[in-house]
Amino acid sequence: MSDSPPPVTELAGPLGPADAAAVRALASAAAERDGIEPLSEQSLLDLLTTGAEHWLVRTVPGSGDEPTGLGLAGYAQLGAASDGTRSAELVVAPQARRAGTGHRLLDAVAARASSGGHRLHVWAHGDLPGAAELARSAGLEPVRDLWRMARALGPGLDGPRVPGLRPFVVGADEESWVELNRRAFAHHPEQGRLTVQDLRAREAEPWFDPGDLLILERDGRAVAYLWLKVEPPVGELYALGVSPEAQGEGLGSLLTAHAVAHLAAHGLDRAVLYTDAAHTAAVRAYTAAGFRRDRVDVQYGPRAPRSSPEDATMPS
Predict the structure, then answer these.
(1) What is the Cα–Cα distance from 225 to 230, expressed in whole angstroms?
(2) Would you say residue 3 lies in a domain?
């Protein structure tokens, strides 16, 4: 074992291909050990984009501390500022835990957020005991719960007919979808800020299928959308947005029922979605559609009064 811990290296995004691959390998190793992914989809996409900042704790080959094949003992990411807050995620290799790596990474992102006058929020996916202990040791407390809700699927689940619902057209619908999403989630801390670049990054993912991103039009204007993510044996109600002028008409429940039938038609075993626990109307609607909470992701931050964000089913 080395006499001193390896340094924390700070990098501005995007990461190079080798570092991005090492972070993904580290995240996979942690997910295999813990049974839950340590980094969100957005954080993994942001490895190769500008805007985020990154901290890496590299291992020294042959030191005895090296998690075999990873090259990293730890990683942290700090997202761009939004409404005075910066959100962070971090992961420590299973073989490198209980050695202070998590504390060093958290101290680094906290110092950077503070230097810019920003509040720091940190996600703990699954709210595992070690992550909760680390956050609380830094004086952070739970400020937001994101629920994953799930339900079983099976044959014979018929969905309602939804006139005006059509598939997304790649190359033609990006700008209009971003505008619809912005209006539908104007007050949401993450979802409403997605850009055309963010959408195109998802279009490049292996799971993306334009036939699973459905746009609801009325009189030639998009008023709602339903986005599904199919990764057998599980399907996800990835996002569902309704424009302000069409809210209160039951479109959310209608599209949720359509989503369940659509995913069942793929032959999937299970459907999941993500929603803010504080959005009680959404929780009630999804519960009525047969979904039940099966996991909680917790965001830690300084205690402060918060208003309930509008609902989104896309993870942070």
Answers:
(1) 16
(2) no
Our measurement of the distance from residue 198's CA atom to the centroid of its chain's CA atoms, rounded to an integer in Å, reads 12
* Domain interval for residue 171: 150-301
Q: Measured at the alpha carbon of residue 303, what is the angle toward residues 183 and 100, in degrees to the nearest 5?
A: 105
Count the helices and strands in the chain (H runs, E runs).
8, 12
Our count of domains for the chain comes to 2
Instruction: Say how far residue 37 (Cα) sits from the centre of its chain.
Output: 10
Question: Tokens for 66?
Answer: 């090296």
**224: in domain:** yes
3-state secondary structure of 77: strand
Taking only the tens place, the pLDDT of each residue in 92-124 is: 999 999 999 999 999 999 999 999 999 999 999
State pTM to two decimals.
Answer: 0.87
Q: Is there a single domain that holds both residue 287 and residue 180?
A: yes
**Is 235 inside any structural domain?**
yes
Same domain for 171 and 282?
Answer: yes
In this predicted structure, the answer to whether residue 142 has a pLDDT above a threshold of 90 is: yes
Q: Same domain for 95 and 159?
A: no
CA atoms within 13 A on the CB side of 183: 15
Residue 29, domain member (yes or no): yes
pLDDT, tens digit, 9 for 90 and up, residues 119-130: 999 999 999 999
Nearest residue to 57 (alpha-carbon basis) of 70, 46, 41, 44: 70
